[in-house]
Design a protein that fits this description.
Blueprint lengths: L15 H11 L1 H34 L4 H47 L9 H13 L3 H29 L1 H31 L1 H14 L2 H9 L3 H54 L4 H42 L20 E9 L9 E9 L3 E6 L5 H8 L7 E6 L2 E2 L5 H6 L1 E4 L10 H6 L9 H10 L3 H5 L29 H14 L5 E5 L7 H15 L3 E5 L11 E6 L2 E6 L1 H7 L2 H11 L11
Parallel strand pairs: 3-8, 3-9, 6-7, 7-8
Antiparallel strand pairs: 1-2, 1-4, 4-5, 9-10
Helix pairs in contact: 1-5, 2-3, 2-5, 2-10, 3-5, 3-10, 4-10, 5-6, 5-10, 6-9, 6-10, 7-9, 9-10, 14-16, 18-19
The protein binds adenosine-5'-triphosphate.
C-alpha cells in the first residue's frame, strides 16, 4: 500500500499536449473549427473599435465613406452575434467527443490492472474518484482553456497595439497591472487543486455514508438498528469539514478578487483622467479617445479573461494529472513481456512454500503453504475463519503474487504466465459472488461472454445449477431484470422482476460458473452457504457430477460436503497442518476429526451433548 503523497509531489502541471492530442484524435474537425472561430471572435472587438474610431473621426472631419464603415460595423455586429452560438455548439461537440475518449481511456486503464491490490490502496482510490468525476470535463476544459487563452492573447495583443499607437506609457501601465493578477490567480488555482486533493478522503467518506443510506441492501439493517440518523450525522460532519476547507479558500479568493478589482479601477480611473486632460489639450481627437477607452477596457477585459483562463486551465491541468496518473499506474503484478503460454493442465498445480501477506505492514496470512492439486482430482480445503482459504484462492487466480515461494501450473511458475490466459483456464464460484442488476440470462451469460446470447447454453447451465424453473417462472422469464433498482432494459417501464432470494442468487452464480464450461481448474468457495439442506444436498450432487474427472478445489465449512473429495487438506494459521482422505483424517483424530465431530454432533437425533 502506498503512502498518500502530499500535494507538492504533483503540483507540477503538465498535460496540455496530452489533452490536445486526445482532443485532436477524438474530434479533429470541431477542434480546428473551434480554434478558427475563437480567433475570429477574439479579433472582432479590435476591428470593431477601429471601425468606430474611423467612423467618429470621419463624422468630426466630414469625410466621405460613412456608409461603408456603417455597413462594415453592421456585418461585424452580425458576426459577433452569431459566433457565441457557434462557439457553444463546437465546445459541446468537442466536450462530448473528448469526454467520451477520456472515459474510455480511464476505464480501459482500470481494466488493464491485472490484480486487486490497487483497489485496496486508498491513494489510488482517491485519485480514481477525482479522475472519474472529472474525466468527462477536465480534458475538454484543458483544450478549451488553451484555445481561449490563444483568443485572449489575440484580443489583448490587438488592443495593446492600439494603445501603444496612442500612449505607450498607458499601454505599459495597463500591462503591468495584469502581472499581479496573473500571479494571484495562478496561486489561487493551485490552492484550489491542492484543497480538492486534501478533501478527497473526506468526500469519499461522505459519498460512502450517502451511498449506504441510499442502498437497498443496507436498508434492512439501517432501519432495524435505527442507523439512519447516525449515518446522516456522519455524512454531514464530513460534508461540513470539506465545506470548511472550501469556505476558507473562497474567502481567500474574495480578498484576491477585491484587491485586483481595486487595482483595475485605479488604472482605469488614471486612464480616463489622462484621456480627458489630453483631449482638452487638443493632442488627440474624438476618435482617438473613443478607441483609447475601448482599448483600455479591452485590454483589461482580455487580461481578466486570460488570467481566468490560465488559472482555470492550470487547475484543470492539476486535476488532469490524476487522470494521467491513473492511466499510467503501473500494473500491481509483474506481467513479463514474454510469458509462457498456459497449457491445458496435465500433471497438476503445486504450491511450494507459499508465503503471503496483503501489505508490508500486515501480518502473514499464508506461512509456507505446501500443497498439490493433482490433475483430474478434487481437493477439499478446510480451515477455521480467517485461516487463509479464500486468500489461497486469490493466489491461484493470480490476483496477487506470493511474496515468497511459488505456485506452479504443470511445473511452471504462475508469475511466468499471463494472468488473463491463466484465468481463461479457471472456472470459479467465489464466496462473495456478484449479484448483477441485469437480466437473469445476462447474470448467467457473464460467465462466458462468447455465449452471452446463447439461450440454450444459458438454460442448460441454469439446469445444471437447479435454477432453471425458478428463472423461467419469472414475469419475463430469463429476460426479467433481477433488480428493483432500475427500469427495464428498454428504460421506460419499471422492471416487473424481483430480486431473488439468497439461495436462488447463489444458484444463479453457480450457473454462471457452470456456463464457463470445462475449464482446467474449478474453484468452488462455499458454494452452498445460502442453501437449505435439501438444496444443499441437491447442489452437491450436481456439482459432484460437474467436478468428476476435473481438477477442482472445494472450500466449505459444511464438512459433510467435502468428505468425498479425493484429498482433504486442513489450513490452520497459514499452514497446511493435515492432509489425507476423509477416513485418514478421521482416524488420525486431529483438527479435521475434531471439527467434523463438533459439526456432526449437531445432526444426531435426540438431545445434544454439550462439552463442559
Ligand atoms: N484484502 C485484504 N486485505 C487485507 N487483509 C485481508 C484481505 N482479505 C483478507 N484479509 C485477511 O486475511 C486473513 C485470511 O482471510 P481469508 O478470507 O483468506 O480467510 P478464510 O479462511 O477464507 O476465512 P473464512 O472461512 O471466514 O471465509 C484474515 O485475517 C483477513 O482479515
Amino acid at each position: 500500500m502506498t503512502r498518500r503523497p502530499s500535494t507538492r509531489r504533483w503540483r507540477r502541471p503538465g498535460g496540455v499536449r496530452a489533452a490536445l492530442t486526445m482532443a485532436w484524435r477524438a474530434a479533429p474537425g470541431p477542434l480546428v473549427l473551434l480554434g478558427l472561430v475563437t480567433l475570429v471572435a477574439s479579433a472582432a472587438p479590435v476591428c470593431s473599435a477601429w471601425l468606430l474610431k474611423t467612423l467618429l473621426d470621419r463624422i468630426v472631419t466630414g469625410a466621405a465613406g460613412l456608409t461603408t464603415i456603417g455597413v462594415s460595423l453592421c456585418v461585424l455586429g452580425l458576426v459577433l452575434g452569431v459566433l457565441p452560438e457557434a462557439t457553444n455548439y463546437l465546445r459541446a461537440e468537442l466536450s462530448r467527443a473528448t469526454g467520451l475518449a477520456a472515459s474510455d481511456r480511464l476505464y480501459s486503464a482500470l481494466n488493464r490492472l491485472p490484480g486487486l491490490a490497487r483497489f485496496e490502496d486508498p491513494t489510488f482510490m482517491d485519485r480514481l474518484r477525482i479522475a472519474s468525476q472529472s474525466s468527462a470535463t477536465t480534458p475538454p476544459a484543458v483544450v478549451q482553456g488553451a484555445i481561449a487563452l490563444v483568443g485572449s492573447v489575440v484580443t489583448i495583443g490587438g488592443f495593446l497595439g492600439t494603445l501603444i499607437t496612442i500612449s505607450p506609457w498607458m499601454a505599459l501601465v495597463v500591462l503591468a497591472g495584469a502581472i499581479p493578477a496573473l500571479i494571484a490567480e495562478i496561486a489561487l488555482a493551485r490552492r484550489t487543486a491542492a484543497m480538492l486533493w486534501r478533501i478527497g478522503p473526506t468526500e469519499r467518506r461522505e459519498f460512502f455514508y450517502a451511498d449506504l443510506m441510499a442502498n437497498l441492501d443496507a436498508a434492512k439493517e439501517l432501519r432495524l438498528f435505527g442507523l439512519g440518523g447516525f449515518l446522516r450525522n456522519r455524512m454531514l460532519t464530513e460534508r461540513r469539514q470539506a465545506d470548511g476547507e472550501r469556505r476558507r479558500l473562497d474567502r481567500r479568493g474574495l480578498r484576491v478578487q477585491v484587491a485586483l478589482g481595486l487595482l483595475y479601477a485605479v488604472i482605469n480611473g488614471g486612464g480616463i483622467i489622462w484621456a480627458v486632460s489630453t483631449v482638452r489639450g487638443g493632442t488627440i481627437g474624438v476618435g482617438d479617445i473613443a478607441i483609447f477607452l475601448a482599448a483600455v477596457a479591452g485590454v483589461q477585459a482580455g487580461t481578466a479573461s486570460l488570467v481566468n483562463q490560465v488559472a482555470s486551465t492550470h487547475q484543470h491541468l492539476l486535476l488532469f494529472q490524476h487522470f494521467r496518473d491513473v492511466e499510467r499506474t503501473p500494473p500491481d503484478l509483474v506481467v513479463r513481456p514474454r510469458t509462457t503460454p498456459v497449457p491445458a493442465l496435465d500433471t497438476g498445480i503445486e504450491l511450494r512454500d507459499v508465503w503471503f501477506r496483503y501489505g508490508p505492514d500486515s501480518p502473514w496470512v499464508l506461512r509456507g503453504v505446501d500443497l498439490s492439486i493433482p490433475c483430474g482430482q478434487s481437493l477439499g480445503l478446510v480451515g477455521r475463519n480467517g485461516s487463509g482459504k479464500s486468500t489461497l484462492v486469490k493466489l491461484l487466480c493470480r490476483f496477487y503474487d506470493p511474496q515468497r515461494g511459488s505456485i506452479r501450473w504443470d511445473g511452471v511458475d504462475l508469475r511466468d504466465m499471463d494472468p488473463t490466459q491463466l484465468r481463461e483456464r479457471i472456472g470459479a464460484l467465489f464466496q462473495d459472488y456478484m449479484a448483477y442488476d441485469l437480466s437473469a440470462a445476462e447474470n448467467i451469460g457473464l460467465g462466458d461472454l462468447a455465449r452471452l446470447t446463447d439461450r440454450p447454453a444459458i438454460r442448460q447451465a441454469a439446469q445444471g445449477a437447479g435454477v432453471d424453473e425458478t428463472l423461467a417462472a419469472l414475469p419475463r422469464g430469463y429476460d426479467t431484470l433481477l433488480s428493483r433498482s432500475f427500469f427495464d432494459m428498454d428504460g421506460d417501464e419499471p422492471a416487473d422482476g424481483a430480486p431473488l432470494s439468497g439461495g436462488q442468487w447463489q444458484r444463479v452464480a453457480m450457473a454462471r460458473a457452470v456456463l464457463r464450461g470445462e475449464r482446467d481448474l474449478l474453484i468452488l468457495d462455499e458454494p452452498s452457504a445460502s442453501l437449505d439442506p435439501e438444496a444443499e444436498y441437491d447442489i452437491h450432487r450436481r456439482l459432484k457430477r460437474h467436478r468428476t474427472g476435473r481438477t477442482s478445489l472445494l472450500i466449505s465449512h459444511r464438512l459433510g460436503a467435502l468428505r468425498d473429495a479425493d484429498l482433504l487438506a486442513v489450513l490452520d494459521e497459514g499452514r497446511i497442518v493435515e492432509r489425507g482422505t476423509h477416513d485418514d483424517l478421521i482416524n488420525r483424530g486431529g483438527c479435521y476429526a475434531r471439527l467434523f465431530d463438533i459439526q456432526s454432533s449437531g445432526y444426531h437425533r435426540g438431545p445434544i451433548e454439550v462439552a463442559t
